[in-house]
């Protein structure tokens, strides 16, 4: 079946709590994981509304509506719904941005994918979270705060959709780079022991996608990935921490998840090693998970964020087949 026909965007005003607008953050050198993406842009929203880069919580056509899941400015998620939503379930994609979990970067990295998905009839939940290196202590992430944030954001999604009067359909979590870590971890929450950060999830995704993800935290720590970003996130290397945080947080140690998984990476990715994707896919498959691996020739790390890329086309085809019955 073909993809749903492309439709103009309209904001559905379904507010739990409208958050204060966040200041836009323009990625520079070192963006995401050591490179600077040129995020694709279509010049604005389809209906002529203002496209504010995902940072303005104002209630106007063509902008995101922000929902608070905590008290810090970063503890927000943006709900987008397509116009003309029919009666019945609407497929949902949760987006989790990358940036080596640094407070320097934000969910505006996902703007081009938001437009692509909502334009094709998906609801999108674009998640922000507290990162590492924030100037305000209240905004500081790391273990366990960053993980608890994305868990709380996903658990808020049913309420946001209910306020909008929309029935939730099949739901995917898609994470890029460092967001891939968090996406795979979100898929594993149902296997966490009682009392662990993120345990007892309200919502478990139907499928999950890691786009060039940091899928093995221990291996990335040993390699010094991102200039020590893993150790900064986790509060130390695996042999330096005294508790079981790596066992609870590392996607490579949370297998099997029981959630169908797409692992996609560009063969020319020099930002996050391709082995982070191929190794995870092999381990997940060996553990019994339903895993699809796509290694895309001729594409690098930030191709994942370009709707015109082969990587995103394959991701969309995989999502369409599982969430809408398309092919």
Automatic annotation (TrEMBL):
InterPro entries recorded: AB_hydrolase_fold (IPR029058), BD-FAE-like_dom (IPR049492), GDXG_lipolytic_enzyme (IPR050300)
SUPFAM superfamilies: alpha/beta-Hydrolases
Keyword Hydrolase: yes
UniProt KW Hydrolase keyword: yes
One GO MF term: hydrolase activity
UniProt biased composition (Acidic residues): 44-54
Domain BD-FAE-like: 78-278
Region (Disordered): 27-68
Gene3D superfamilies: alpha/beta hydrolase
Keywords, ordered alphabetically: Hydrolase, Signal
Pfam families listed in its UniProt record: BD-FAE
Signal peptide residue numbers: 1-23
Name the UniProt record assigns to this protein: Acetyl esterase/lipase
Organism of provenance: Sediminihabitans luteus
